[in-house]
Design a protein that fits this description.
- The chain has no helices and eleven strands.
- A hairpin with a 6-residue loop joins strand 5 and strand 6.
- It is globular, with a radius of gyration of 14 Å.
- The relative contact order is 0.32.
C-alpha cells in the first residue's frame, strides 16, 4: 500500500514557477509508475503527466507539455512536478497517484490505472 503526503500548492501569479511534491510511505515505491492529475472546478479530473518506474520515460498532456516536468527520486520515495510559466488555466486541485506497472519502462496515462492517490493540493494562478 502507498500513502502520499502532498506538498502545499498555493496562490501564485501567472508566469511564475512552482514545484509540487508527493512523499510516499512504503517500501515498494519503485514498483509503481507515478502520475499527476488535476481537477478544475466543475470539470473532471484530467491527466497531466506520468513517469515510469525507473524514471526513464515520461509523457505529458498537450496542455502542459514544455512547461511541466515530472520526476521521481526512488531513494526518497518522492515524486515531483515542476511547473513553469504558470497560467490562470492551470488553476486546479493537483493529485499525485501511483499504479502498479509490470515493467520499469511503461508510463500509465489513464486514471483507472492508478490505485493510490494523494489528498490533492490547490494551486491557484492569478492573472
Amino acid at each position: 500500500q502507498v500513502q502520499f503526503v502532498e506538498s502545499v500548492g498555493g496562490l501564485v501569479q501567472a508566469g511564475v514557477s512552482l514545484r509540487l511534491s508527493c512523499a510516499a510511505s512504503g517500501r515498494t515505491f519503485s514498483s509503481y509508475a507515478l502520475g499527476w492529475f488535476r481537477q478544475a472546478p466543475g470539470t473532471e479530473r484530467d491527466f497531466i503527466a506520468a513517469i515510469s518506474r525507473g524514471g526513464g520515460n515520461t509523457n505529458y498532456a498537450d496542455s502542459v507539455k514544455g512547461r511541466f516536468t515530472i520526476s521521481r527520486d526512488n531513494a526518497k520515495n518522492t515524486v515531483y512536478q515542476q511547473m513553469n510559466s504558470l497560467k490562470p488555466e492551470d488553476t486546479a486541485v493537483y493529485y499525485c497517484a501511483a499504479g502498479l506497472s509490470g515493467t520499469v519502462y511503461y508510463t500509465l496515462p489513464n486514471e483507472y490505472q492508478y490505485r493510490y492517490w494523494g489528498q490533492g493540493t490547490q494551486v491557484t494562478v492569478s492573472s
